[in-house]
Structures are given as structure tokens and as C-alpha cells.
Amino acid sequence: MHAWPASDVPALPGEGRDLRIHDTATGGPVTLDPGPVARIYVCGITPYDATHIGHAATYNAFDLVQRVWLDTKRQVHYVQNVTDVDDPLLERAARDDVDWVSLAERETALFREDMTALRMLPPRHYVGAVEAIPGIVPLVERLRDSGAAYDLEGDVYFSVEADPHFGGVSHLDAAAMRLLSAERGGDPDRPGKKNPLDPMLWMAAREGEPSWDGGSLGRGRPGWHIECVAIALDHLGMGFDVQGGGSDLVFPHHEMGASHAQVLTGEFPMAKAYVHAGMVALDGEKMSKSRGNLVFVSALRRAGVDPAAIRLALLAHHYRADWEWTDQVLQDAVARLERWRAAVSRPDGPPAEALVEEIREALSNDLDAPAALAAVDRWAALQAGTGGTDEGAPGVVSRAVDALMGVAL
């Protein structure tokens, strides 16, 4: 599966800063020192209704991670999946009486278009669940053969008790885990499971649903968590720098994925930091496909909204915060974009070197994009007032905003 084209990232004078970021597993900040190649895995979409503002906010957060690392002259090895076969996709295809493969391809193509318009840097490896199946099957077989997984009426389940570190990502109690498991694709009430929390690794073929050759597992399709594990281990290995996604993935997805990987490899941890973006609401409720209260990036673009303004609307909120999308949020972003473009369109301006360092410091400090925006606002206000005599300043600001925040002025 191919990703989307990369926009150029301007080189900036001076030195970038190492990233300090909040780690869900430890509950506090960690300073990441990845070495010459930083490794990041971000969970991708299930392509049946893309791309809403909640998606865009999540991918904006991890685009900032990449940009901070690139500013330190590191290479970034970024991997993202596409869950192109799963119950929600099949259910939507059945509801709309369309082919599930065509639905997945259409929505994935739209996602690529939106990511390109928003200047999100693409992953090096963009991998669909279906194409990953040949690598998933042997992992499930290994878990089963080692006693870390078991058969139940043809399905294969992972035993969470096989991982002594289980619970170390989310730190939830059993009752909370069970509730979230039921809400987020698990089946804690299924009779015969060793532990209600045990997640499915391989679903035996169901009538009328797609299935693939699973070798000794029989025909079927993979569970959600093992998909990401197989892709991450294949392309990044254990101990990669950041496992990212929305906060709704902390449990069960990232918790279970960590346990799968740790049992498979005997190594700990799967990732050095588990980083999660907040949820975006609309009309007082979390924006979600199940509720249908979605604002789509493609719809905004069709309405003539500049993608740079959409990006500024996302950047106005700290990535870990839960926030609400409103018309005012967008109007404020459009106005900010107009001010910034007017400021950099002048032939000279106030010196910009200190501003570049402010942006760097803000973003290296747990991706504090609102602080970075405020710094540019102050420079733009000076430009609109007294101005300045530095002929290179507007170009420096324009390149810094592009390189570090992905906003083309």
C-alpha cells in the first residue's frame, strides 16, 4: 500500500531540541534521545468514514513529533497501518450495500488526499492489515504453540496472564478494563475464555465474511491488536521510540499490543513512550463515527476552507487536551492565517532568530503548539505595528512555520 507525497521541509538555522513528551505508561514526561534514526508507529484509520477532524488532530500531533526530530537532523522511520478489514468496515459496507474492498479503497484514497492537503508528512511504510496477514499468521502460531494463546471454538485468543507487564500501559483496574473492552471491540462476556479480557488473535472464518488461509490456524482473519504488532515488529523492531494514537487506543489496543509483542520477543518495553492525543467533540459529545457527529476535512476543503487554516485550528489546542470543534475555532484560525500571511508578505520585519528558538522550545516541550502559535502572533503583531528592518526576517518566519508546524504561508 502506498502513502501520500511528502511536502518539502525547509532547513532552519541553528539547532533543534530533543523532544520531551508525556508518556502514558509512566504518567509523566520523558526526554527521548532516539539516536540518528527515530522510530515511530502511529495507528491508522479503519477506512469506512475518513477523514474527520478527530483523525486530523491525532495525525497532526504525530506530524509535529516528526518535525521536531527532523529539526535535530535525525532521520525518522515512521510506520502507519490501515485496518482495511475489521467488523466496523464490514458493517458499514453491508449497511450501504457496497463492496467492502471498494469502500476501504475509496476512504483510504480520500484520507491520502486530506493528509496531502494538510501537509502531514507521510510514513515510510504504510501497511494494510490484509497485506500484513502473511506476517501475522506465524506470530499467532508462535503465541499458541508457546502456551500464551489458546483455541476457543476455532478462534484463537491471547492470554493476558502470559505477560507479567500486562496493565503497565493503561494502569486501569480490572473493572475499568472490562468495561472498555466491551465498548471497544472486545468480547469479555464470551463463555469459555480463560480471562474475560483475553483478546482475539485470529477469528475463524464466518459465513459471508472475508477470510484468508491461516495455515495451522485454519481460514479466518486477524484480530485488531496483533495486526499492529506484526507491522511494527516487522518494520521497527522492539523498543522503538514512540507508539502513538488517540487516547481511545490506550486500552485495549495499545495495552494488548504491548503484551503481544513483549510475550513474542521476551523484551520490554515494546515502545519507549506511549503518546496519546486527546479527543475532539462536536455539540458537546466526542466526535465519533458511531454517533455520526463528524466534521470532515474533505467537506471543509470542498467548502473552500484553506487547509492551512484547518491545520492552524488543530494547532490552537494542545495535543493531549480534549476540545470542541466550533465555527469560532475555524474563524479564529482563518483570521490568524490572514494575519500571518500579511506579516510575511512585507519585504522586511523584526528580527526572527529569537522567534525560531521560541517555536523550537515550545514544540520540544510536549508539543506545546499553542505556545508556538502565540510566539508567532507576537512577531506578527510587531510586524503590523512598528515593523522592522531585517530583510531576511519574513522569509525565516515563513520557513520556520512551515518546517516546524506544517503551515505554508
Overview of the molecule:
It is a single chain. The chain has 13 helices and 14 strands. The chain is α/β, with parallel strands linked by helices and 409 residues long. Helix 4 packs across helix 6 and helix 11 runs antiparallel to helix 12 (369-384).
User: How would the global form be characterised?
Assistant: globular
As residue ranges, the low-confidence spans are: none
In the CATH hierarchy, what is the class of the largest domain? Alpha Beta
Number of helices: 13
Which structural class fits the helix and strand makeup? alpha/beta
Instruction: State the helical fraction.
Output: 40-55%
Report the radius of gyration as a whole number of Å. 22 Å
